[in-house]
GNAT family acetyltransferase (Paenibacillus solani), 165 residues
Amino acid sequence: MKTRQETLTIRFSEMKDAAALMALDELVWDRNTAPAPLEWTSRDHYLLHCPPGTQLVALHEGELCGYVGFRNPTSLHSNRHVLELNIAVHPDYQRQGIGLRLMAAAKDTARSKGISKLRLRVLSSNPGALSFYRYCGFTEEGRLIQEFYVDGRYVDDILMCCFLS
């Protein structure tokens, strides 16, 4: 029997992935992982913000089980060496190394494009994600104290980065 690691494929996102990516976003991004649930109003709305090729998707036996998205944080030429990441893995596939493989693929892709810094944001109320990002080599570079008020409590927005060599 093959493990999920052995049957995992990682590739750039395609148009045909939109519905599965939208469903994964709806499942993963909730009040515990984001300041507000992520809701796409339509496939076109999703594709406007996440066009094909701006994510690496993980597929287990053809089923989309995770992604890492990347984009330049600004349109400034002086900021072109930086990519902002967001990553999601389906709950049924978490803690099986898929996030690690996606992050490694994102780092390899970024290096091949001359990117030297990756950055991301994570809520202080998400200790599992914080631990995962630290394990992947990210360090805290800033913190917006009490940036969000979620479910009756203030939550910090933690800015993390990883420098690529």
About this structure: The first strand starts at residue 8 and ends at 12. The mean pLDDT is 93. The beta strands are 8-12, 55-60, 63-71, 82-89, 117-123, 139-150, 153-163. Residues 8-116 form a domain with the Aminopeptidase fold (CATH 3.40.630.30).
